[in-house]
Design goal:
heterodimer, A: 357 residues, mainly alpha, ABC transporter involved in vitamin B12 uptake, BtuC, two-stranded antiparallel sheet, 4 strands, B: 292 residues, globular
Chain lengths: 357, 292
């Protein structure tokens, strides 16, 4: 109905190969883009800064991780550490007078460098051992940041982000910060959509599906694993910097602990491995579902329908979050992206249906 | 020199207690190839169960018996309800599932029973044993002995009829099926045994550092132990535990003062990284041969 295919004739390869060949999809994207751009006018300042902004930035982080985990099949349980490197690098660069535009690139390069070193160390191994190696990276980076005063500004310290400008726009208002985050997440989205349909993306998918088999058909496995680690860590580093400058505006080591890494992996899995739309949905779901359900429990408590102690209330997000991960893995391993895809495929031919259904 | 020996002995005992946590991971991995990242939270839950039962006025050893039954059933249920549905899925799904279980348990235990640290007393005096200039914590000593006993028992267990079945299952699921071994039940039993070792670890660690969510952080050193010793080797747990414990005690003993604390996690991280770089299957583990 909405995605009607009849009457759509692609007469040139260029139109058939575009990102969204079906007009209905394209219009949806345009509409969402319009909402994204007009968000500061539509939503209240509170909604913008405490829901939309973290959602966009964590989407960018989930997309970067999804490139590594979903497209290239390399597991990473230390992605928060990658983001931490980016955040701290950018802040220190801006502090010594580097413009933010270059500081972001510097942050990305630093993360990519360190991320690739750990990736290279783990090149021989995969699966579970890669999980462990990246876990070790998380602990090492955490420790280094906390224990080197030159980086963290001393034990238990909080580094304020200096006020700065991005392409002559001062990052002083919430709106300006929102647009920087929006710009970045759009860039990451387009980049990954395009990586997925080029030769690099296909090589990465070949490595994901079976690295020996990929080597047999002439894909340089080592090179593409490194490319995956480098690109993903670069994007993750810049995302960390954007997170620091646009959302937190002050960094502490606690913002990038192992739990955040797990949260990012959960976003990718709940959204769907390798699905770009899924990363948007997954990030939103993982960030917002515990908040929403806790608010619901608080509401029930206030109405007197349920008696929940403050201690239990503070642990509800953790329980929901664990239950979400387990539930999705058991019921829909391909995540929210797959659920959307099923609905879309159903609507493609609605009110008819494929005979196999 | 006495300082060094004190670090060495206490490190070795701590290491043995780490291997108590690691034993559960190895038992499960050996039989089903599932890396159980929920073992830390299972240790925590086990400690909570024992604490809960002792608050009803039950003596500790009876509480431990109750805990053994509860955790054995819990392990079997976790396998039956969660892990069995994941057979044939990629490893990331399985790892994430156990991690999801870990997070869930970390919410449930402290959430319902209170987040403040609890005490489990196993009836030992807190005064250290003094040999020459060396101070040894009694609880550590008991923990080390319990660990040795349990590891020895599980080595013997693998020689019994059930243990032989488990070894067959760890070799090859399909050929075990074909000779009439119930692979599902064998894996279930291994989860139950992991729950049992979680009780031992929970009681020992709970009496050392109190019962709260930090018990689940034992997962990290336990991972180092199993990676170093080999994921599917019970003997590796013992050796790996000793190495991780001693290095994690001696190195911080000298370096913490210089660099400002927290070097234990760094040592553990380096053990994991170096093992993975140079000998991924660990000291005693079996090397995986991959075919296209």
């Amino acid at each position: 109905m909405f995605y009607r295919l009849s009457g759509i004739y692609h007469t040139r390869y260029a139109t058939a190969r575009q990102l969204w060949p079906i007009p209905a999809d394209r219009w949806q994207v345009y509409f969402l883009l319009l909402v994204g751009v007009a968000a500061p006018l539509i939503f209240s300042n509170f909604t913008l800064t405490s829901y939309l902004l973290p959602w966009l930035i964590f989407t960018a982080a989930a997309l970067s991780l999804n490139l590594l985990m979903g497209v290239a099949g390399q597991l990473h349980f230390g992605f928060a550490a990658v983001m931490a490197i980016g955040a701290y690098t950018s802040i220190h660069l801006v502090r010594i007078g580097v413009p933010l535009e270059f500081a972001l690139v510097g942050a990305g390069l630093m993360s990519a460098l360190i991320g690739s070193v750990f990736g290279a160390a783990a090149l021989r191994v995969k699966g579970l051992y890669l999980v462990m190696a990246t876990l070790a990276m998380q602990y090492l980076v955490d420790w280094t940041i906390i224990n080197v005063p030159a980086i963290s500004g001393g034990a238990q310290a909080t580094l304020q982000t200096p006020s700065t400008t991005f392409f002559f726009v001062p990052l002083r208002s919430d709106t300006a910060r929102y647009y920087l985050a929006l710009l970045w997440v759009l860039f990451v989205t387009l980049l990954i959509l395009n990586i997925k349909r080029t030769s690099v993306g296909r090589a990465l998918v070949a490595v994901r599906d079976k690295d020996y088999a990929a080597a047999v058909i002439g894909v340089n496995v080592v090179r593409f694993k490194l490319v995956a680690f480098f690109t993903s860590s670069f994007l993750g580093g810049v995302t960390g910097a954007v997170l620091a400058f646009c959302y937190y505006q002050a960094v502490t080591p606690e913002q990038f602990t192992f739990n955040v890494s797990v949260q990012l992996v959960a976003m990718v899995l709940v959204g769907g491995l390798g699905s770009v739309l899924g990363s948007y949905l997954g990030a939103g779901f993982v960030l917002l579902a515990p908040i929403a359900l806790t608010n619901f429990a608080v509401y029930l408590n206030q109405m007197g329908w349920l008696n929940v102690s403050a201690n239990l209330l503070s642990h509800i997000p953790l329980m929901i979050y664990g239950a979400l991960i387990i539930g999705f893995l058991l019921l829909e391993p391909l995540g929210l992206g797959k659920i959307y895809d099923n609905v879309r495929k159903y609507l493609l031919v609605w009110p008819f249906r494929h005979s196999s259904m | 020199m006495a300082y060094f020996f004190e670090l060495l002995i206490n490190g070795a005992l701590t290491g043995l207690m780490y291997s108590l946590v690691a034993l559960g991971i190895v038992l499960i991995y050996k039989s089903s190839g599932v890396p159980n990242l929920a073992q830390g939270a299972m240790v925590m839950s086990a400690a909570y169960v024992v604490w809960l039962v002792t608050t009803w006025g039950v003596p500790v050893f009876l509480a431990v018996l109750v805990g053994i039954v509860v955790m054995f059933i819990f392990g079997m249920l976790a396998e039956r309800l969660l892990l069995r549905k994941m057979v044939g899925q990629p490893i990331i799904m399985i790892v994430m599932l156990t991690l999801g279980l870990e997070i869930l348990l970390r919410g449930v235990g402290p959430g319902f029973l209170g987040a403040a640290p609890k005490q489990i007393s196993i009836g030992l005096s807190l005064a250290p044993i003094i040999i020459g200039d060396i101070f040894i914590n009694r609880v550590y000593l008991v923990g080390g002995v319990v660990a040795l006993l349990l590891i020895g028992a599980s080595m013997l267990f693998f020689r019994t009829r059930m243990g032989t079945k488990l070894r067959a299952v760890s070799d090859d699921h399909v050929s075990s099926w074909s000779v009439g071994i119930s692979v599902e039940r064998a894996i279930g039993v291994s989860w139950g045994l992991a729950g049992l070792s979680a009780i031992a670890a929970g009681v020992v660690w709970g009496s050392v550092q109190g019962v709260d969510w930090t018990l689940s952080e034992l997962l990290f050193p336990a991972i180092a132990v199993v990676i170093l010793g080999g994921l599917d080797s019970v003997a590796g747990v013992l050796v790996g535990g000793l190495i991780v414990g001693i290095l994690g005690s001696v190195v911080p003993g000298y370096l913490d003062a210089v660099v400002g604390g927290g070097t234990r996690d760094v040592v553990t991280s380096f053990i994991i990284l170096l093992t993975i770089m140079f000998r991924p299957h660990g000291i005693y583990g079996r090397e995986d041969i991959e075919r296209v």
